[in-house]
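Throughout our pipeline, every protein is held as a single compact record rather than as scattered files. Such a record has a labelled line for the sequence and another for the backbone structure tokens. This encoding replaces a full spatial description with a residue-level series of whole-number codes. For reference, a complete record is included directly beneath this paragraph.
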Amino acid sequence: MKTVFVGAGCVATWLAEILPETRDRVALDPGPVADGFPMPVLPVDVLNPGDAAAAAITGADLLVLAVPVDVALAVLDRWGAHLKTGCAVIDTLSTKSLFAERLAERLPGLGAAGVNPLFRPQRGLPGGRVLATVYRPDARIAQAFDHIRDYGCDVDDMSFDQHDRIMGAVQGLTHITALAFGQALQAMGPPPDTATTPPYRCTAAIFARLVSGAPHIPWEIQRNNPYANAARRQLIDTLEHLDAQILENDQAGFARDIVALRTDPRLRVDKGADTAARLFIASKAPEPVTS
């Protein structure tokens, strides 16, 4: 079986470690390529490749699209009609709706699925939870998910709309909150390390983790997830509500809202508080710098 990866970043590396090695597997990526990527890489633009890259795409039995969504959509438009009969496609996109719609429009008979690892993949670290969206069942797709499970990952199957709705909160709301925290902190000026609290350090760590990755990932989530806009508007509305309570000295209303949050069983506050306690223990203040 010939497997072709479009993209050779960290997510592609993770999936390349999971899928079985084949003699003819190759990746197409103009660079930069992730360290230790486990197969040959042709440094080409997949939308304007040379003959060797074009032959790889059109001869693929399994095509893995580990690229930004605009590139993945362009690959379908440029190469979809030229894929060999029986080829299957796997995407690693953070949002699924646009890709699902383009697949249905352009290639309704193509075996295809999407994966979304709910962690930043690192080489040699098996396990983790993966969301799986099967657009159209196929034997090669089923085999790929068997390999992912054998690698130690828990796989949750869901529709593309369910995926994006859940990720609107899990990624969309979380990312925009962390980015807003970071930008506000940048404007205010960060405090000395030795004057920080565990909640601050954990929040700052989430922000730092987010901005240390590729900017296109949080951008795509905010721009392309159909539920992210509602998440941002809800966050803005909630901040304005809290701001009004404070400016109007509405301490009673502020307290009622906190009690309502604490007692909402959907929010699982007791479990979250236990998790926070463990994180806070691990989040020690840096030692003061001495000259």
Summary: DSSP finds eleven helices and eight strands in the chain. The mean pLDDT is 93.
